[in-house]
């Protein structure tokens, strides 16, 4: 018998539109036109005989049927992708470990430590990819994630690793090492903005208990890796997690002319889906990570950075 299945193209279009809640972004993701996405979803709704989206002007809202269909479809597409990868590389995805984290964390903190895990567990292939604090742990393909936040993610378990601490950093070429500055003098220098965390300067001002009513503007970069590189080259002052710039501070490429680091409201957490909580590879990585944190002793980082 012929299976009662819609086209894979229609399913891809719906999954992307539901994930972004935006036809334009779904089209960009899949390399289609917005009208192409709309047509595929209309075909899918006709096939199923039910409406998947409410359309209210430019806004999209999933119907109850659409929300349930998206949740189950995302898991099914993930599984289809997994068995396809199995066929290509000749081993089960279940034997591997997919780690999601922030781009700068993935490039600066994690690689220094991940070699130890790979050496200790050579039979567990590791894949590191990008994640966001809004990751949906009910449908995500990640086995485990390292994320900054308050520790609450739906459908997930989280373990605090260490707190985030923030500081204003500068190149000695921009602010001399021996400069005697009041913290509010930050406004006299060019500033670097974080597009991903646009309120970071205001957050630092609040943590430092500084009252400032002027404008905060400057060159904007997408994430911390770009921001740190710009600060090293003297483009401006930057508010960054000290976790990411310990080497630059140690080497003298950057310094903290406006005072010691301040603990923010967030911490870094190890997060994994509830549905995968008994996955042996997750348990191995979780325990390895916690042993490493204890061994390296993050307490000095909390106190000094």
UniProtKB/TrEMBL annotation:
PROSITE patterns: HTH_LYSR. The keyword Transport does not apply. Residues 6-63 form the HTH lysR-type domain. Keywords: DNA-binding, Transcription, Transcription regulation. The keyword Transcription applies. It comes from the Bacteria. InterPro entries: LysR-type_TF_proteobact-type (IPR058163), LysR_HTH_N (IPR000847), LysR_subst-bd (IPR005119), WH-like_DNA-bd_sf (IPR036388), WH_DNA-bd_sf (IPR036390). GO terms for molecular function: DNA-binding transcription factor activity; sequence-specific DNA binding. One of its GO terms (biological process) is DNA-templated transcription. Belongs to the LysR transcriptional regulatory family. Transcriptional regulator of the ttuABCDE tartrate utilization operon. This is HTH-type transcriptional regulator TtuA.
């Amino acid at each position: 018998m012929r299976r009662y299945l819609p086209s894979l193209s229609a399913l891809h279009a719906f999954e992307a539109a539901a994930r972004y809640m935006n036809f334009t972004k779904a089209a960009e993701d899949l390399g289609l036109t917005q009208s192409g996405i709309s047509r595929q979803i209309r075909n899918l709704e006709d096939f199923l005989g039910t409406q998947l989206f409410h359309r209210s002007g430019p806004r999209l809202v999933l119907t109850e049927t659409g929300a349930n269909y998206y949740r189950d479809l995302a898991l099914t597409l993930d599984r289809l992708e997994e068995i396809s990868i199995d066929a290509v590389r000749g081993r089960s995805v279940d034997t591997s470990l997919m780690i999601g984290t922030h781009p700068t964390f993935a490039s600066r903190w994690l690689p220094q430590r991940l070699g130890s895990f790979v050496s200790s567990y050579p039979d567990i292939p590791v894949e590191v990819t990008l994640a966001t604090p809004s990751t949906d742990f009910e449908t995500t393909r990640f086995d485990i994630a390292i994320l900054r936040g308050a520790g609450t993610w739906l459908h997930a378990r989280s373990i605090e690793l260490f707190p985030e601490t923030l500081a204003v950093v500068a190149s000695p070429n921009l602010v001399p090492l021996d400069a005697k500055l009041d913290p509010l003098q930050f406004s006299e220098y060019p500033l670097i903005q974080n597009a991903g965390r646009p309120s970071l300067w205001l957050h630092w001002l609040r943590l430092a208990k500084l009252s400032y009513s002027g404008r905060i503007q400057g060159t904007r970069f997408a994430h911390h890796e770009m921001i740190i590189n710009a600060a090293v080259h003297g483009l401006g002052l930057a508010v960054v997690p000290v976790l990411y710039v310990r080497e630059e501070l140690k080497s003298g490429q950057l310094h903290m002319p406006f005072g010691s680091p301040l603990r923010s409201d967030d911490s870094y957490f190890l997060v994994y889906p509830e549905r995968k909580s008994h996955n042996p590879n997750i348990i191995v990585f979780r325990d390895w990570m916690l042993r490493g944190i204890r061994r390296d002793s993050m307490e000095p980082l909390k106190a000094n950075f």
